[in-house]
Amino acid sequence: ARARHGRKVPRRTVDLARLMYNEAMTPSEVIRKWKGLDDDVEEDTQDEDEDFFKKPKRTADEDDQEDRSIPRYDLQELEQRWTDEDNLEALRRRFASANLLREKEDGDEEE
Amino acid sequence: MSTTTSPPPIRFTGSKYLVQRLVVSTLTGRPIRISQIRSNSTTSPGLLPHEISFLRLLDTITNGSLIEFSMTGTTLLYRPGLLTGSAQGYGADTSGVLKHELPRECTRGVSYYLLPLCLLAPFSKAALNVLFTGAGVITSSTPSTGDISVDTVRTAILPLYRSFGIENNIELRILRRSNPGPGNRGGGGEVQLLFGHQVRLPKTVHLLNPGRVKSIKGVAYATGVSAANNARMIEAARGVLNPFVANTYIFSDVSSAPLVPDGSKTAQPGAKRKIGVGFGISLVAESSTGALWSADVASPPEGGVPPEDVGRGAAYQLLETISKGGYVSAVAAPTVLTLMAMGSEDVGRVKMGRDVLGTKEVVSLARDLRAFGASGWGLRDADEDEQGDVVVSVVGRGVGNVGRKIA
Q1: Domains of chain A: which residue ranges?
Q2: Does an H or E element contain A86, and which?
Q3: Each residue of B21-65: pLDDT tens digit?
Q4: Considering CB atoms only, which of B38, B244, B313 is closest to A75?
């Protein structure tokens, strides 16, 4: 599966292992690139521009400067995700109450 | 203490991860210099009150530390001394309790101090017994700064130390509860941390089997507001969680709002006022193998959020945390990884969810630890086809207890 798409597979462990100690990037850049959200990191000129414009942006969201132990969650988004049947069903496997043999039995308990 | 033989300080920049860096510096005994602390902030450059308070705390539990600020507070030089714990004659009273007063302007929850303190405590010379008091102690989780509540520290973080062989005589007493006060500042709570198990080296751990969630416990707290809020939060949280785990216990704790001296100029001398009114809930899921996931939501100080939303929000947050997988959650990851890095020179392994590992906090912790001389982490995919968890291998430094004299 790994050989399938050569380089454009985001979130690969190997990539993170390589990026993690790359001191040329800030940790948040590493994460963005690893998740494949940042496509234009490779280009040098683009990079320079980005550095130039990043300063004011970074000071703007001041509270991102502080350390948080709980990440910011969007309640609406969470609620949407965890009222969705498929997600709930997928998560059920992580609970001891789950019956692994017969599935989709008590799926409509939510709501 | 700063002799000419001490190594040159390791340099860092920025205000982020300040506490984390100070902790690792203290544990490894390497001095650090942090520059550009909020240097481009026009409103509040330099260190903030809660950070200064943490430095003070660090100063009281160590002997011979050297802390130097620049004039503006944007540069900090820290030479760690020996971790003495709350030894008599170093700030602790006759019963060995060290009283630490948090400033009124403090916007962080008290867990901001408790988590690093717990990391330092196993390596100190004597037991650590710190009483947090004053107008700045917020025991609830803080919606604005993202700190976890004291209940979560007690039920989700402290049990983690057990797998490192640190388990005796650890107690976190919540003497008075408080939510954040007006403008997210201050609280007036009171918390005592007793950490009496000092080790030479934490055990090497292999936390590879997250198991399945078997029970959910929680605490709903209401300070200075009606106890009905607790019932409503619990009801809403159970509504979400019950289909998954019938084994759900959520305790309810009601207390009156703490009174603190009124600091305003117009007040009568000796006048007191109530602050820290609000409610919140802390949920902890425990798996069959002892893995813990937690969620924390509290009402914002400006109000306007019904308790049902808080309860449901916490339940959804818990599901989200569980779904990220691995043995440790994002909240516990810094604690576990730091303890592993401080362990004996052996490879410890921990399974982490892909989204827990791939956060900037964890990446920067990895970098910081390497800057302090720890070796890099090994990452590999977990073998099973579960959900793409990653096994992180951490080699300990084998430094051992800094409280014992080195060299």
Answers
A1: 13-61, 75-109
A2: helix A85-92
A3: 999 999 988 999 999 998 888 888 889 999 999 999 999 998 889
A4: B313
Least CA distance to A106: which residue of chain B?
B243
Mutate which of A16, A18, A63, A67 to test chain B, going by most B C-beta atoms within 10 A?
A67
Helix/strand/coil percent split, chain A, to 5 = 50, 0, 50
> What range does the domain containing B358 cover?
333-395
Q: Is residue B297 within 8 Å of B310, Cβ to Cβ?
A: yes
Residues 17-36 of A with CB under 8 A from B: 17, 20-21, 23, 26-28, 30-31, 34-35
Picking from B104, B111, B277, the residue whose alpha carbon sits closest to that of residue B185 is: B104
Q: Pick from B287, B302, B324: which residue ends a domain? A: B324
Interface residue B354 vs chain A (CB under 8 A): yes
Whether B367 and chain A come into contact, CB under 8 Å, resolves to yes
B112/B171 same-domain check: yes
Residues in chain A: 111
Question: Which of B15, B107, B212 to mutate against chain A (most A CBs within 10 Å)?
Answer: B212
**pLDDT tens string B74-121:** 999 999 988 888 876 666 777 789 999 999 889 999 999 999 999 999
Rounded to 5 degrees, φ, ψ at B284 are: -135, 125
Instruction: Sort out which chain A residues have CB atoms less than 8 A from B236's CB and list them.
Output: none
Whether the CB-CB separation of B298 and B225 falls below 8 Å is answered with no
For B270-325, what is each residue's pLDDT tens digit?
888 888 899 999 999 999 999 999 999 999 988 889 999 999 999 999 999 999 88
Using alpha carbons only, give the angle B61, B26, B15 rounded to the nearest 5 degrees.
Answer: 105
